Amino acid sequence: MEEGGEPLRLREKAYASFTRHLLARDVRPGQFVSQRELVALTGLPLGAIRELVPRLEAEGLLTTIPQRGIQIAHIDLTLIRDAFQFRLFMEKEAIALFTLSASNELLAGLRREHEDTLAKGLAGQLTPEIIDEAQAIDWNLHDTIIDSVGNEIIAKAYRVNSIKMRLINQERFRIDGRVVPVMREHLTILAAIESRQPERAVEAITEHINNARALALKV
């Protein structure tokens, strides 16, 4: 069957390669590219790219414009509002469930890495490597909350939106210079989860997401 064969593997490889290059800024939001350029970028055959384009269009990561070519999704106010609203809807429900299901061991590990990073930030020890680690810790908390639901449909939809969120972060507000406030907000969220009070956790993550949304819209 094709689902377990080479065509599927090529499609997934093409998708992973494209999104990796997109997040690495090898192609930029709003940029026009051709299918041939995508072949050169990903190192994959034209057939795989032709099958990839409809999926990326459906996910809102690019648009095919007649006579002009393929345009990478550009960051505008509509995309920012939509992406943040999606996050809010998903994460409010997920964190309510996570607050009741997360193990003490998992929460202790999350708290420890946030506190360690906050301490480095307060001590002025934010090297580029530590900033990258802080960004990974930031994304990991949100991914962990979503993944705890155990729903593959939700997880996949959230991952697509996460790509858009990361593009927004790159264009509008990077974690550079914001490591300390982000870690503090996350520790507030973790404290709310540790209280095992879903309403409190929902309030904490709502404030965190709305703060990020305000920054993205203000720039």
From TrEMBL:
Cited SMART domains: FCD
Keywords, ordered alphabetically: DNA-binding, Transcription, Transcription regulation
Lineage top rank: taxon: Bacteria
Domain HTH gntR-type stretches: 8-75
One Pfam assignment: FCD
Identification of the protein by name: GntR family transcriptional regulator
